[in-house]
Amino acid sequence: MFDSNTYLEAQTGVCMLPDVKRQDFLVLLHMAYGLPVDYSAIIKYSDLSSVIRLADRLQFDGMLTEIENFLITLSQKEILRWEMVAEQFRFKKLREVILAIIKRIDQK
Description:
By secondary structure, this protein is mainly alpha-helical. The chain is 67% helix and 0% strand.
């Protein structure tokens, strides 16, 4: 795309992503450059789900793993809120934790 003058991106050196929020992209850049990412702040002040969608779209597998590991550290109540995301983005470890929580609740 950037090596061929056929595409606008090669001519301008810019790749526009109009459907991507600036804040979400900045989170990905932080991770790509090895800067710390505060996922708990993203949950509190923004939308971690949109960051997950963008990381999946751009194939930031390392970030998806990092996010999954963060989600596993949340309280049981918070973890259960992420069930749909765990299914949609194939978060195997998170799904296992969610299933274990549900089994414990059912046994009570």
